[in-house]
């Protein structure tokens, strides 16, 4: 019996034993349609102490997807304990061995790409193309970090008299991760892959709105021979996240979400003297000069605003366009926006799926109304579209282009996190850069121009953790990502992730005698 069949048999047995129903993907990863939704010490489980049930909305239909038990402090403690116990095994494994298992996990994800994408699509209301980007990004990440694990080298520092010091990279211990609801797979893997590669163990609390797929990652890791307890998932809302962040045995907090919650997580970190990484919101600028390749600028603006219903942290929602080409640009942008296909996230031709839930849709529509009230012009979109049949209960919003915008409007200043873009005209480079930086956010930004000097000059003047020249929203996992100002603290990805998930220990070796001066008299 080969490994694949053996594992599938195991999963079938597991499913029969637990009474679950579901499909089996390649290598035995289950597409289970029922709970339990926690994953602690190597298996799915109900929380040992639950404080209630969360009803999870299915965005595409507006119906109920499932009910998930909320983990109380006892369950948080159980998961942290499992992670702490497995730390002694996982952290002692060689980097090469950890890398081998993580690489195996990334291969399993790759083999199951379509199934995982569908699993996500149904959950998040997001269309297939975006989800595949999410899962591919996740796979790339999982692929990169096994190799990065091999690059975690120690330093030998020669000192006076033949003495020397060794600077060693050590894991931090148990990492507590808390995620936002958009791109739930990517958010989770950007944290988990490097943390595990560096020898840490992990307890992850996904968003209460997209709780399901972190469990798939847990199954993938188990299938890839990552020991039980190295990666654990606990479900819940804000209180469960807070219990995890405040747990004394959690060494580091890695958070993705809004600025107000980020402040709470940082406060919890301060109280426990914990290392904290925060990936927070954004209000990124795109500056398009008169010499830009207009077609590329339009394509990037669509991608920077309407991918995944605009629910992307780095989105370029403030579109600064040189006054001389504003009309031509806006005409092309609106023509393309109107061609977008609002529909079932599972249909190949769909380009606009459902908003995450009704409350968020009202928030987005509220921003459109405020823009109207403050004098902006709606060129297209900004309305709910009711689809027929089972999709009638979903909150589908038409992508919105606003002109006649001013920098002081609410829609221009605040993060909307929906498909609403504001066109802002400018006359000079200096003016565009100044206005682009007039915000507390600093996650990303872009410049479009054929002038290479100007491209570099502006990209280096935008106050943001990532700036793109002539493109947008690319996140190769080889390079760091994170925010300036209120958009965050620390970086994910690239070799920066090694700094984020390790600490150094310096071992000094004395090759001579101890010199304590006159303190010691012969
Ligand atoms: P949110 O802040 O409402 O919630 C994020 C997570 O924090 C959820 O899992 C929630 O249950 C948990 N939480 C709530 N209170 C908590 C507490 N006191 N302690 C610990 N955890 C707590 O954010 P959201 O609405 O889920 O996500 C949208 C936001 O995330 C947007 O602002 C978006 O820009 C941001 N985001 C940033 C990035 C990035 O990489 N910078 C990526 C994705 C999303």
UniProtKB/TrEMBL annotation:
Matching SUPFAM superfamilies: ALDH-like (SSF53720)
Stretches assigned to the Aldehyde dehydrogenase domain: 52-507
Keyword Isomerase: no
GO molecular function (one): oxidoreductase activity, acting on the aldehyde or oxo group of donors, NAD or NADP as acceptor
Active site annotation, chain numbering: 279
Keyword terms of this UniProt record: Membrane, Oxidoreductase, Transmembrane, Transmembrane helix
Domain of life: Eukaryota
UniProt-listed Gene3D superfamilies: Aldehyde Dehydrogenase, Chain A, domain 1 (3.40.605.10), Aldehyde Dehydrogenase, Chain A, domain 2 (3.40.309.10)
PANTHER family with a match to the protein in the record: ALDEHYDE DEHYDROGENASE-RELATED
Family to which this protein belongs: Belongs to the aldehyde dehydrogenase family.
Protein name: Aldehyde dehydrogenase domain-containing protein
Organism: Meganyctiphanes norvegica (Northern krill)
Lineage: Eukaryota, Metazoa, Ecdysozoa, Arthropoda, Crustacea
